[in-house]
Amino acid sequence: MVSQWMLQPLLLPLAFLAAPSASFAGSGAASSSFPEPSGGCAARAKAVPREGLSRHSISVHDPLLSHGFRRYALYIPASYDGTSSVPLVLDFHGFYDDFVSEAKEDGMRLAAEREGFIVAYPNGKGDNPADPDDWWNTWNAAGTNGTPGRFGPEICTKDHSLYPCYSSCAIAGLCDGKKKHRTDCGSATCVDDTGFMRALMLHLKQSFCIDESRIHGTGISTGGIFLYAMAADPVVGPQLASIMPVEASEILGYLAGPVQSMAVIDVHGSKDDCIPANVTNSWGPYKHNGCPNSRAGRDGCTVGDDGWFYHPVDEVLATYAASNGCPSERPQPQPQAVTSRFDGQTGWSCTAPFGSCSVAPVLRCVHSGGHTWPFHVGKPQIRNRQFGEMFWHFVGQIRRSKPSETMPDLII
Q1: In terms of CATH architecture, what is 5-400?
Q2: 260 close to 284: Cβ distance less than 8 angstroms
Q3: Which of 34, 209, 210, 272 supports an S-S bond with 38, CB 3.0-4.6 Å?
Q4: pLDDT bracket for residue 405 (50, 70, 90)
Q5: Highest mean pLDDT among 33-47, 154-168, 297-311, 395-409
Q6: Cα(211)–Cα(216) distance, rounded to whole angstroms?
Q7: For the whole model, what pTM was predicted?
Q8: Domains of the chain by residue range
Q9: 13 pLDDT above the threshold of 60
Q10: Model confidence over 131-179: pLDDT tens digits?
Q11: Where does the secretion signal sit in this chain (predicted)?
Q12: Are 232 and 259 a contacting pair, CB within 8 Å?
């Protein structure tokens, strides 16, 4: 089998061959096997940027924008010298938030400084004319802007007037800009966020010395939905080594799956009823009266507290299992436990619901919270530090291989 991914020794597939309960490899940078230096490594004449967090913009071509640029923040660790290739992490904020708040919330900067990787925080768009401060920032992922999907346009309940008609969607003719709220199942802008990400990734790889085999993504809520969409994009998807969506799924009727094999670690709170992981977690009034059967997926559908329909997380992860060499296309009745040093903290535990995958791991991790970051909800400083640590603990040893490379023999 031709492999798209290289897993470092002692990662999940190896451990699973040895025991039904696997211990995930420790954190830290991956070994030096098969680095893929980006074009930015050759541009050594460029001055090394100042370390720390900084704000930037990039020119884009988007006819629905009133200006031709998009914003992002960048964190450069002090160890970056512009000559040795380093991993890149893409970190997507959720609805209402922006790149600055994301940089403060999840502790990725602390992990980046310690482990030596660069973090990019793209900024979503919120072109709501009634809100000039852009506090309605969101991401235009599949199913969020009101375009019909596999089950038609109604992929939410009739009580869905929470979201505004963004200027870009009014220009595109998808909603009435004169009305305060949308009357269809649309919650995002209509700007080209996918085009923005394609341009941003190209820019970053040309401007910095990036190890292209170690590009990882994470995002919370709508940012996680968009991350799933990027994994399915034919341009962005092949560049990703792994994704870790937090409190996210794919909107019903828009299940796409990854464009090629990649590691996925889904993180969900057992009390999340905003984007529930499973049917039983659906929001109270909709738990027993959810989406119509004609629109339900293979395992039914979940209904969020804003009335949106989603695919259950296991159904989403099954699309990754199909391409990652997992032995099962459906979750196992007793999934294999994956142990780590984070186990037990606010109910944290992880499993491999589809068994030991030969190409890249498919994991599902849960915590006892709701629609929020895991770990010490009442103690933000501890929580933030631990999320960044946990993220790198799971993805730090995962590397994308070239399409022509095959998986090495696994040594037990």
Answers
A1: 3-Layer(aba) Sandwich (3.40)
A2: no
A3: 210
A4: very low
A5: 297-311
A6: 11
A7: 0.86
A8: 5-400
A9: no
A10: 555 457 889 998 888 777 776 667 887 666 678 788 888 888 888 777 7
A11: 1-25
A12: yes
User: According to the 3-state scheme, what is the secondary structure of the chain?
Assistant: CCCCEEECCCCHHHHHHHCCCEECCCCCCCCCCCCCECHHHCCCCCCCCCCEEEEEEEECCCCCCCCCEEEEEEEECCCCCCCCCEEEEEEECCCCCCHHHHHHHCCHHHHHHHHCCEEEEECCECCCCCCCCCCCCECCCCCCECCCECCECCCECCCCCCCCCCHHHHHCCCCCCCCCCCCCCECCCCCCHHHHHHHHHHHHHHHCCEEEEEEEEEEECHHHHHHHHHHCCCCCHHHCCEEEEECCCCECCCCCCCCCCCEEEEEEECCCCCCCCCHHHCCHHHCCCCCCHHHCEECECEECCCCEEECCHHHHHHHHHHHCCCCCCCCCCCCEEEECCCCCHHHCEEEECCCCCCCCCEEEEEECCCCCCCCCCCCHHHHHHHHHHHHHHHHCCEEECCCCCCCCCCCC
Provide the token pair at 217: 């993504």
